[in-house]
Design a protein that fits this description.
Chain lengths: ~250, ~80
């Protein structure tokens, strides 16, 4: 009897939550997302830097957008994922979910730092200042501190079980910051501009300017996924070290 | 109309209309941070891998040594 799509998905889901199974099955995903992500980034950056016309008001400095927006977006999405994984880990104790979370934190942290630094550099020619105590910028800085906190907790707190729990809680509590980042520009009239993209309206930029942004955004997401999976494979080996499947893999490395 | 490119010369491209410092610092620092992440992570993974392999070969040697010792002990008992 043919299995339903749902039951096949459930089987796949449970298999992927085993580090032993995940280690091999994720490899083609890494190649595909890594390859497509790199290609998208290349196209987006070439187009954004060399082809998109200069902005009427900002001139060429607007090109920072092709790094700034994807980085900020990825940093926020990653934190939401960490919060979801935090809940799953605390409730269902699935080890794989914590492995994924630990693998994602460094990349999310770097993305957040990039968003802040590029934003700061963009602010100087645009607003005349590298920093403003504006709602979105402040909450983004808070996000960076949360990421650094998660990173240090996972690196320094022993035993592992305690580090996992504290990290999960910080991810869950800190996720409240994400809607603040996103909507602060609408709630409070502040320095940072509002959204270029919404689900309902046409973008305020011409296509030749926003299409490369879509490329770099997808490229960033795909590359971050591939990178996280690469790190997760290493962490699977480390967390399961001592088990026979790891011994076999190490011998083959 | 010009070619598809937004700049006429390479010099224009590097200058980014007198915003070159901001644009290239932003891109450069971003690239640098990503490179640092990749290199540090790779180095950590490699360190763990070497340590794990060393431990594995030590265990193998120890197991061989123990097996040999057992054979010798059995030989001596006869």
């Amino acid at each position: 009897m043919k299995q339903s799509l749902w039951s096949r998905f459930k089987i796949w889901f449970f298999l992927m939550s085993s580090p032993y199974h995940f280690f091999d099955k994720i490899v083609p995903w890494i190649y595909w997302t890594g390859g497509i992500g790199a290609a998208f980034m290349l196209v987006g950056l070439l187009w954004g830097l060399g082809i998109a016309p200069p902005d009427y008001q900002q001139g060429h400095s607007f090109r920072i957008i092709y790094i700034h927006v994807p980085a900020a977006s990825a940093a926020m999405s990653a934190y939401v994922l960490l919060a979801i994984w935090g809940v799953i880990f605390l409730v269902w104790k699935i080890r794989m979910v914590d492995i994924l979370a630990q693998s994602l934190v460094p990349a999310g942290m770097v993305a957040c730092a990039i968003a802040l630094i590029t934003g700061s550099l963009w602010g100087i020619p645009t607003w005349g200042t590298a920093w403003a105590a504006d709602a979105r910028i402040l909450s983004m800085a808070l996000l960076l501190f949360l990421y650094i906190g998660l990173f240090l907790i996972r690196a320094q707190v022993k035993p592992l079980g305690r580090a996992q729990q504290i990290a999960a809680v910080i991810a869950i509590v800190g996720v409240l910051n994400i809607p603040v980042i996103k909507y602060s520009v609408e709630w409070v009239a502040t320095l940072h501009q509002g959204a270029t993209f919404t689900l309902t309206e046409k973008p305020k930029m011409p296509p030749t300017m926003y299409v490369p942004l879509i490329f770099t955004a997808f490229g960033t997401y795909f590359l971050m996924f591939a990178w996280t999976m690469i790190q997760a494979r290493w962490l699977c080996l480390q967390r399961d070290s001592g088990k026979s499947w790891v011994t076999e893999k190490i011998a083959k490395l | 109309m010009n070619s598809i490119w937004a700049f006429e010369t390479w010099s224009d491209f590097f200058q980014m209309g007198h915003h070159g410092f901001y644009v290239w610092s932003a891109y450069g620092i971003s690239f640098g941070l990503v490179a640092a992440l990749v290199v540090v992570s790779w180095a950590q993974s490699r360190r763990w891998q070497l340590q794990a392999q060393r431990q594995l070969s030590r265990q193998k040697l120890q197991a061989q040594h123990d097996a040999q010792k057992k054979k010798d002990d059995r030989g001596l008992q006869e």
